[in-house]
Write a structure and sequence with these properties.
Length: 196
């Protein structure tokens, strides 16, 4: 894990992203699931189909970081923010929460084999090419980020000539994902996915 705050306290300048997706989510399990699904959807839009290793890996990283934001970074009444960018063949996912005092350990520790949780950052460290923590800009909180270097051969960002989605397209995709989520709960299965 790296910290992006240099000794002088100034944040490093990053090049402008070629593509960017940002959205705020409620700090609930449902918000974390929606964040994961929208990251996967956006990667598909950007030329990394759902079943490719790039999409599956970054979606899993997004799921772990979003779940941690809900579980460990939750402040009542405040959500978390997800930013996905592509810059020079590198995909970067950032999940920002509003809880500054709960920072992850410098290196994820092995957990008890019987433990039901505690493996999220181990997965992130294993899957990402690089990851770390930086302070939230202009407010209390932290950003946990991960990078995945993507070979441009075969997955060029200019290879796919799809138009940029509009706000309406994103809203329709979000509504579709929420509808899918309602029928996925076990208690809804006995009623054919319908709520009473």
């Amino acid at each position: 894990m790296k910290s992006e705050t240099p000794p002088n306290g100034h944040m490093p300048q990053r090049p402008a992203p070629e593509r960017e997706f940002t959205m705020r989510f409620t700090a609930t399990p449902r918000g974390a699931r929606l964040a994961r699904r929208l990251v996967s959807h956006r990667l598909d839009d950007w030329g990394h189909p759902y079943t490719t290793p790039v999409n599956e890996t970054l979606t899993l990283i997004a799921a772990e970081l979003s779940a941690n934001a809900v579980r460990h970074g939750h402040v009542p009444g405040r959500g978390f923010h997800v930013q996905l960018t592509v810059t020079d063949g590198t995909l970067r996912i950032e999940v920002t929460d509003t809880r500054a005092e709960k920072r992850p350990p410098a290196s994820p520790s092995d957990t008890d084999s019987l433990s039901e949780s505690g493996r999220g950052l181990l997965l992130v460290a294993a899957l990402a090419d690089d990851w770390g923590v930086s302070p939230r800009r202009a407010a209390a909180g932290k950003t946990i980020w991960a990078k995945l270097h993507v070979p441009t051969k075969g997955h060029s960002l200019t290879q796919r000539a799809a138009p940029e989605p509009t706000d309406l397209d994103l809203l329709l995709a979000t509504a579709s994902l929420l509808r899918d989520d309602l029928g996925s709960r076990p208690e809804d299965a006995s009623h054919g996915g319908l709520r009473r």
